[in-house]
Design goal:
It is a single chain. Helix 2 packs across helix 3. The strands form three sheets. A six-stranded mixed barrel has the order 8-12-9-11-10-13. A four-stranded mixed beta sheet has the order 1-6-7-5, with helices on one face. It has a three-stranded antiparallel beta sheet with strand order 2-3-4. It has eight helices and 13 strands. The protein is an alpha+beta fold and 338 residues long.
């Protein structure tokens, strides 16, 4: 068999595989039962498809309830199982392997938290890092990386696939929001510590000026680490007023909790989990002790874990910081429009 014929043969096989997998690899299923869909093209077999997705041919046959010896038919739809050998959400990688992003297109009503739960409890921090998100918001139709297919560089043409362009997220419930100008936090120094140098103390008591002191004996002033910038209740205050205009407002007394998030510290965009309001709606939280208000946007229902037992609202730590309740449970009033 001539060399040019062999080269042509493999060129056809490679082209077929690329044609069959044009576009993003879209994940299907939930939890740990995840898979990709593949349509069989001419010249493909269980073995060539297995090499493409880094999975044993017998696993593909078993997952699709097919007989390995019967082969494949052109146009046949296969489900390619994602398991510990060919799928990762930690970035673990062996020598000679490449990571290929797999995506989920956000559907109506889905949130970043819900995506994490549906896809094997992947951490929100990982989802935000992979998709370059600066907040916890996602938009309908947005392609979201939820993990990576591991393939052999020398056996799979998918190894050359590039990630889709990053799409900036917008709110699940689109609303026009006024832009907030955020000033850089000011560094605030505490009061000057007492001077230990005896000569300086004596001179200060006599009202002397320009006294030379031994700087090695003068403590360095401490810098205030807590932020000195607040947002008058938060970025979503105007949106709350829009949502509650000409509607009946409900005020519920309850107990609030706090979750950690990177959102809100620089832009005042505060978020929460709530079982009483739909994702995308904005709630007003009033601290019973001080009467202070903040405005938070609902991400999803309150996670069903032990630490959230008995809570009616869970707000981000940036929100709790502005409210002045720290990271402990607090009594509050939750207000929203029905």
């Amino acid at each position: 068999m001539s060399k040019w014929f062999i080269a042509l043969f493999f060129s056809i096989i490679t082209s077929n595989a690329l044609w069959a997998q044009d576009g993003n690899l879209e994940i299907k299923g939930t939890g740990t039962d995840l898979y990709l869909e593949h349509t069989v093209v001419p010249k493909e077999s269980f073995f060539s498809v297995g090499r493409l997705y880094n999975i044993a041919p017998k696993e593909i046959a078993a997952y699709n309830h097919l007989q390995l010896a019967a082969g494949l038919k052109v146009g046949e739809a296969l489900k390619i199982p994602m398991n510990k050998n060919n799928f990762t959400q930690t970035g673990a990688l062996a020598r000679g392997e490449a990571l290929v992003p797999v995506y989920h297109n956000v559907e109506a009503g889905e949130t970043l938290y819900r995506l994490g739960v549906n896809y094997d409890k992947v951490a929100l921090t990982s989802l935000k890092k992979w998709n370059r998100l600066s907040s916890d918001e996602v938009s309908v139709g947005q392609p979201m990386i939820i993990g990576y297919l591991k393939v052999n560089k020398s056996q799979s043409v998918l190894a050359n696939r590039k990630a889709a362009p990053v799409v900036e997220a917008t709110a699940v419930v689109p609303q026009k929001e006024e832009k907030t100008v955020v000033k850089k936090p000011e560094v605030v120094a505490v009061a000057e510590p007492a001077v230990k140098n005896a000569e300086a103390v004596k001179a200060a008591s006599n009202g002397a000026a320009n006294v030379k002191t031994d700087e090695s004996k003068v403590p360095v002033p401490q810098v205030k680490t807590r932020r000195s910038i607040y947002f008058s209740g938060g970025y979503f205050k105007n949106l709350y007023n829009q949502q509650t205009a000409n509607k009946v407002q409900t005020d519920n007394n309850g107990v609030g909790g706090v979750f950690k998030s990177t959102s809100g510290w620089q832009d005042g965009k505060y978020y929460c989990f709530s079982n009483d309001a739909a994702p995308g709606s904005v709630l007003k939280i009033t601290d019973n002790a001080t009467g202070k208000n903040i405005y938070v946007k609902v991400l999803d229902a309150i996670p069903d874990i032990k630490q959230n037992s008995g809570l009616s609202i869970v707000i981000s730590n940036a929100a709790s910081d502005e409210l002045g309740v720290g990271e402990n449970k607090f009594d509050c009033i939750v207000s929203f429009a029905k």
